[in-house]
Amino acid sequence: MVFSPVFPAGILQPLFYSQHFPKSLNYGGIGVVIGHEMTHGFDDKGRQFDKNGNLKQWWNNRTIKAFRERAQCIIDQYSKYKVDQVNKFSDGRITQGENIADNGGIKQAYRAYRHWVDRNGEENLLPGIDLTHDQLFFLNYAQIWCGSMRPEETKIKMLVSVHSLGPIRVLGPLSNSYDFARAYNCPVGSRMNPEKKCYVW
Q: Domain spanning 21-183: which superfamily?
């Protein structure tokens, strides 16, 4: 089976992608989306299908055990995020597949970006913006999830959606990222650079 994602034209525009953006922004946008979708092939649901798309257990017991332990770390982490607007905690269990994909997607996209830099060299800094391209990569990822919701909509989404709310989709993966912490010089033990980080892939 070949990974053949389809990206409608609607997503191939800012903030996700622009031919005029520096690579850091594109990798932090559409690159993360691609990495996210690829990671779904190895999350709590995708791992149950073989290379031909058939429902089949193809992981050995040791791999399954390791996956479940790592996934539990993600579940526990995301279940501790409180949404003050509605005074409720996020449900890390129902959102685990998307949370795993968000974490894996950002990690793989950043690796791909750094690989591009290794081959092509660092891009020129953007005039008037005092940020490195590594910082811009993570900034673009974060700004994709900016938005607002009425409390009623927030409550419903928290009950039924397999996706975490936007702010949690930023806080979770970035606080698990050593690369983010390094780019922004986050002190070890701070909210965005905790000593204990969760990862599956």
A: Collagenase (Catalytic Domain) (3.40.390.10)
